[in-house]
Amino acid sequence: MAAHVRSVVRGRHTTDPAHMPKAHQRHLEWTPSRIITWAGTIGAQTTALVEAILADRPHPEQGYRSCLGILRLAKRYGLARLEAACARAVSVDARSYRHVDSILKHGLEPAHGAGGPAATPSAPRPRAPPRARVLPRRGRSGGAGTRRRGRECSGRGIGTYGRPRETRS
User: Fold this and answer.
1) What is the pTM of this model?
2) Who contacts 97 (Cβ-Cβ below 8 Å, separation ≥6)?
3) Which 8-state DSSP code applies to residue 59?
4) CA–CA separation, 163 vs 167, rounded Å?
5) CA distance 47 to 36
6) Alpha carbon distance 50, 86 (integer Å)
């Protein structure tokens, strides 16, 4: 149980940082200007995207995870590709980590600042082998008296349309 001093400011939150969850305490040291400055080390388009993400949210803190994820993509794809992907994201009003990650995965960023879409993805995507057709099994599964699709089969051949089966003498 904790005791707090009563705040004199009306309608404002008064939170003691020591009483916040650990995950929230880590975000206290981050500020929008710090994230924007970090994005500036990558490039102008990355900065523009980060600023747009933080501005779109009701509270800038709600955009921190998205922005930090985008900045972390530089480790996997490199600074030039991330900057090009952010340029494309800004041009199509994409405002999330998932959009930028998808642009990079599919090689849709402009060719490293050339202004046009990339001719080919960074690595060729493997194709799945053609699938073989599966034919229905003959024998016990289609014979008389078996269940097929939830109804009882009568044992008549296909195409008889309810005609009585001919018997041999």
Assistant:
1) 0.55
2) 65, 66, 69, 70, 73
3) S
4) 12
5) 6
6) 9
